[in-house]
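Subject: design request, 257 residues
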């Protein structure tokens, strides 16, 4: 078995080695494979980074489908997340613009599966804060990626997790009776705070519901004359709000609009 691992290392087939390690539930081997994967990416060409990310995505999917033990699955996902963090973050803990954005998306998904809202909030914060440390185009793309991740988290349907992530994001605070901001806010520009405000709106401000309702309203092809005739019929018959016909009219209006 150990010779097979060495052969996978030599051939660069780290996904095969991870599959064997997952099947045998060897935590030390998983850590060793991921460490060698990062080492090989740093010593190879620039195109190897995409290969590393694809291997880590495979590891994430395999950990969810192949591993039956919950405890070992959590340990394996934690190792995958730690490896992704080393790939995504620079040495000083900031988001590295040179690294692929796909790795950041995979990292957030992995942390979300582990239920680590604080880590997800930290990653989104780093993505949005990158607007102050990059050129206009790069910073905007990175911040938009952070907002897209907020949409993905909301789509997961875990409202408690979404609320925890929103609580981990910084919020602009203005002192009462003063036009200035607190010291913690001075390091971020107005554009950066605007992105954070939009992130809070997406997570807990009901923005996704507004988008859904707006889409349904714009693409609705109902005949307004139907509701007009229903209202006239109610008025002519003098029906009260507690009548069956009134309730039917309200329900029909909800479906039509």
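Subject: RE: design request

Done. Sequence follows.
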């Amino acid at each position: 078995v150990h010779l097979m691992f060495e052969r996978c290392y030599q051939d660069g087939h780290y996904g095969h080695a991870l599959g064997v390690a997952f099947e045998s539930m060897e935590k030390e081997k998983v850590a060793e494979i991921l460490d060698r994967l990062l080492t090989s990416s740093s010593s190879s060409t620039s195109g190897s980074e995409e290969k590393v990310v694809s291997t880590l995505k495979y590891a994430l999917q395999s950990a969810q489908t192949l591993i039956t033990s919950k405890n070992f699955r959590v340990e394996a996902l934690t190792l995958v997340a730690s490896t992704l963090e080393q790939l995504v973050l620079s040495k000083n803990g900031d988001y590295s613009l040179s690294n692929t954005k796909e790795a950041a998306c995979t990292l957030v998904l992995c942390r979300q599966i582990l239920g680590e809202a604080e880590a997800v909030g930290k990653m989104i914060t780093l993505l949005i804060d990158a607007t102050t440390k990059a050129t206009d185009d790069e910073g905007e793309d990175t911040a938009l990626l952070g907002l897209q991740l907020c949409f993905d988290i909301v789509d997961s349907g875990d409202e408690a997790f979404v609320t925890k992530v929103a609580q981990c994001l910084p919020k602009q605070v203005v002192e009462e009776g003063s036009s200035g901001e607190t010291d913690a806010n001075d390091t971020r520009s107005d554009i950066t705070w605007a992105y954070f405000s939009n992130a809070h709106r997406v997570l807990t401000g009901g923005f996704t519901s507004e988008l859904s309702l707006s889409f349904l309203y714009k693409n609705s092809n109902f005949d307004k004359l139907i509701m007009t005739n229903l209202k006239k019929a109610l008025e002519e018959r003098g029906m009260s709000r507690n009548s069956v016909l009134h309730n039917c009219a309200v329900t029909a209006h909800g479906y039509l609009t």
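Residues 65 and 73 are 10 Å apart (CA to CA).
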